[in-house]
């Protein structure tokens, strides 16, 4: 498992603030699963919360509803192909970890695994809201632990640089944008 | 107002799929307002829906709740300074359009204005969900019309290129990432 540093709760929103595509991992009853999700966002600062859309057709959804837990993993460009592939297979049919040779590590609070090679990881506890889960496939979670690769996040800020690891933003098909150049417009 | 093309409902999610920062405009009772929102995402394909976090402290929130309408505007890097500024002023204190010299155009369905110089615009009708609005500041909307600048979106795909107009991804303070290089990993 790659090196990782713990991120304090008040800074965890920054891992997702720029809108990267995420990989969702889940675990229940001895089964783990992995899927990609283009639709996620932070929902609150501290305690940090997140929102993510999990379709009814997914195997992940049953694992999250049964365990009350999930992890949002933020992949780098090197994992873009995997991000597409795990979004198009179903954990009901195949063990996607074995089929794709995915290496995982353990989180500190939840049992869903952390995907090796990602840039950051948010361990989440489901905030049960059955009406919006059923009506909109919308799932809310409280971030109970957060981690980042110190090569790209210094504990408070992203340090992604040209030619280095970058997060990714899914469009459609096999098409993505890479997270681009950082810039600063000065203090608010 | 810049040139714009109508985007068919089934393609509207692509305007936000990559997680850009948005500017929220609203209008009610003769008053318009404008604020920025880092936390938004698509929620469904067709009819397209969106989710956005609108804090209780904002003047925008009252206008949206009263009118049942809002617009998500997707700014380019040229509007990054404005995006920070309208996120730090309150429409309760100042007419932010006049104070910032903001040029607007009219939408086709909702009365909230479209901000000149943006790359795309999603006219939305609020889907009332009082519990999550109150508890999480989370607002859902159905996209009732969508528009894009044909210089950067061809009706189905973003065509943003190096050196041209790019969407932006807010981090914190005055800090952003630009939407970076497009890449393709092949068919799913």
From TrEMBL, chains A, B:
<comment type="similarity">
    <text>Belongs to the flavoredoxin family.</text>
</comment>
<dbReference type="Pfam" id="PF01613">
    <property type="entry name" value="Flavin_Reduct"/>
</dbReference>
<dbReference type="InterPro" id="IPR052174">
    <property type="entry name" value="Flavoredoxin"/>
</dbReference>
<dbReference type="InterPro" id="IPR012349">
    <property type="entry name" value="Split_barrel_FMN-bd"/>
</dbReference>
<dbReference type="InterPro" id="IPR002563">
    <property type="entry name" value="Flavin_Rdtase-like_dom"/>
</dbReference>
<keyword id="KW-0285">Flavoprotein</keyword>
<feature type="domain" description="Flavin reductase like">
    <location>
        <begin position="14"/>
        <end position="159"/>
    </location>
</feature>
<protein>
    <submittedName>
        <fullName>Flavin reductase family protein</fullName>
    </submittedName>
</protein>
